[in-house]
Design brief:
six-stranded antiparallel β-barrel; globular; alpha+beta; 101 residues
């Protein structure tokens, strides 16, 4: 699962509705625990950790955020990525994620 600062996993895309719809993927617990242990002390606002992400042919930089509700980090997946990769809620997404230290 981990090699240096990189993580690969599959997880379903889910939608959180507040004032607007947001779409996320939960990191698996082993990856989230490793990231928290190794990078949590350097986290930014809201406990965020900067990452580089690849899904299919799409690559972007964003942040992952700790979620007390989900008890893991959550990765936001923006509309341009969802559209380019044909992702809808419930779709299982293959993700390659690298922490940007």
């Amino acid at each position: 699962m981990t090699v240096a600062d990189s993580y690969s996993f599959v997880a379903p895309l889910w939608e959180w509705q507040a004032k607007a719809s947001w779409f996320f993927v939960n990191l698996p617990e082993p990856a989230a625990d490793d990231i928290e242990e190794r990078f949590g002390r350097r986290a930014g606002g809201f406990g965020s950790v900067r990452v580089d992400v690849t899904v299919g042919d799409t690559n972007w930089q964003t942040s992952i955020f700790p979620s007390t509700e989900h008890e893991t980090y959550i990765l936001p997946v923006k509309k341009t990525v969802r559209t380019a990769e044909g992702l809808t809620p419930g779709t299982t997404v293959a993700i390659a994620l690298t922490v940007l230290a």
